[in-house]
Amino acid sequence: MDAVIKKLMPQSAYMEKPVTDRPSEAEVEAAVRTLLRWTGDNPDREGLIDTPKRVAKAYREMFGGYDMCPADELGRTFEEVAGYDDLVIVKDITFHSHCEHHMVPIIGKAHVGYLPDGKVVGLSKIARVVDIFAHRLQTQEALTAQIAGVIQDVLNPRGVAVMIEAEHMCMAMRGIRKQGSTTLTSTFTGVFKDTPEEQVRFVTMVRGVSPLPTSWSTGK
């Protein structure tokens, strides 16, 4: 299968990297020590001596999405698809992110579908796009829109559908403290936005129920 490397939009369009002057690791570790003291604990006790260094390393990993461009992941497409032009769905993409309001975890699954227009992208690349955006401070609504937007703009398919269902620890661990409550968001572009039947087909396939052929559902 021959790959086509396509010219991408400027990286700045999807980097969304507002912070360019990161503090030093020493400054980060000092800040973590301050937070440990704020909790009421002693940062000099044995169990916490290396915690600032561990937190700095963990944050670098959990927020690595600021150093990556999701558009780059979609740059390699395949045109040899034997005429296939129907719905492609990658569902149950597990992810973890962090709420931009309280910096506590968001844990969930993303379901992404698109209608190709003569070319497709490697399936793992869709999951990578989800991870890149998730590894930034987020709201679920913004995450949903960003995933759909970059796929639509870079691949230019006939339409994109994204559904995310996630549990927010800012709701489960603090405030109202409602564990197990799930938030569902979705966004549609192109054909999916203009055609309710395509939205229904996407949701039905994500939910694992085979839709009836059109001739059955209409009685024809």
Q: Which key features would you list for this structure?
A:
disordered C terminus; 220 residues; 8 strands; five-stranded mixed sheet; three-stranded antiparallel sheet; alpha+beta
Task: Describe what you observe in this structure.
The protein has helices at 12-15, 25-39, 51-62, 70-73, 123-134, 140-155, 169-172, 190-194, 196-206, 214-218; strands at 3-5, 76-78, 88-99, 105-115, 120-121, 137-138, 159-168, 183-188. With 220 residues, the protein is α+β, with helices and mostly antiparallel strands. It has a five-stranded mixed sheet with strand order 6-3-4-7-8, sandwiched between helices. It has a three-stranded antiparallel sheet with strand order 1-2-5. A hairpin with a 5-residue loop joins strand 3 and strand 4 (105-115). Helix 2 (25-39) packs across helix 3 (51-62) and helix 5 (123-134) packs across helix 6. It starts with a strand and ends with a helix. Residues 4-12 and 212-220 have low confidence and may be disordered.
